């Protein structure tokens, strides 16, 4: 499912809703954002001063390119997990820049989470094509602050057991929303979103979208398992959110 390394426009594969290439999110004739509010959306909590300072210097951190090739024997997650909820997950970003993770109730809703990860987009999508990838995001428990786990601002990032920098939660930018709007007809697929004729120094804007099974283990632990359509032997991705301490 990894996007091909090509400068030509690629139509999304395994798309269950449309067969046309998504329009450019940078086009002058941008479509209006018509994404719906998620059913459980509430007002976002205020970021602390420490978090704002951390986010301001986050982009100066080096981009980590982990190997992500540790073999792990886990059964596939093609079928519905008891107690799980189906969500839409999208990995997207410019090929040479950091990857972003968006989680939505479905492809037509505004994202409930945008997380910027210190992993190169092209490298992560390439490694996913080689087999199973496990992303673990950990943060410390703060008993004095009663917030939901997906509202935590900063995470320590691990890819297949290797520490790979940080993940930072942020509000959706205009470009994030245009990417989500452009991809809203697409349920599953991977490819390149057409951009302007001007070449971007960070490469093509690539994406990978799939259904994920959300399993809430406790108030301090949630897991998202990528669901392969029709039980095929495609790449596997698991994302773990854990508060420790």
From TrEMBL:
Annotated region described as Disordered, given as residue ranges: 1-48
Ranges annotated as biased composition (Polar residues): 1-15
Biased composition (Low complexity): 16-48
Gene Ontology BP terms: hydrotropism
NCBIfam families according to UniProt: A_thal_3588
Protein name, entry field: Protein MIZU-KUSSEI 1
């Amino acid at each position: 499912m990894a996007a091909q390394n090509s400068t030509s426009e690629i139509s999304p594969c395994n798309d269950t809703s449309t067969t046309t290439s998504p329009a450019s999110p940078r086009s002058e004739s941008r479509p209006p954002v018509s994404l719906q509010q998620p059913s459980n959306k509430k007002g976002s909590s205020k970021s602390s001063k420490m978090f704002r300072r951390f986010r301001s210097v986050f982009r100066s951190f080096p981009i980590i390119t982990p190997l992500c090739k540790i073999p792990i024997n886990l059964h596939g997650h093609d079928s519905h997990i008891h107690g799980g909820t189906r969500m839409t997950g999208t990995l997207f970003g410019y090929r040479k820049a950091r990857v972003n993770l968006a989680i939505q109730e479905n492809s037509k809703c505004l994202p409930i989470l945008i997380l910027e990860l210190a992993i190169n987009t092209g490298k992560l999508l390439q490694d996913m094509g080689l087999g199973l990838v496990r992303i673990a995001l950990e943060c410390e428990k703060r008993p004095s602050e009663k917030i939901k786990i997906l509202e935590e601002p900063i995470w320590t990032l691990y890819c297949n057991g290797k520490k790979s920098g940080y993940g930072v939660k942020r509000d959706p930018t205009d470009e994030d929303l245009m990417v989500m709007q452009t991809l809203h007809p697409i349920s599953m697929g991977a490819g390149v979103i057409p951009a302007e004729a001007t070449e971007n120094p960070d490469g093509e804007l690539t994406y990978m979208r799939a259904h994920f099974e959300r399993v809430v283990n406790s108030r301090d632990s949630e897991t998202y398992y990528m669901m392969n359509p029709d039980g095929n032997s495609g790449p596997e991705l698991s994302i773990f959110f854990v508060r420790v301490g």
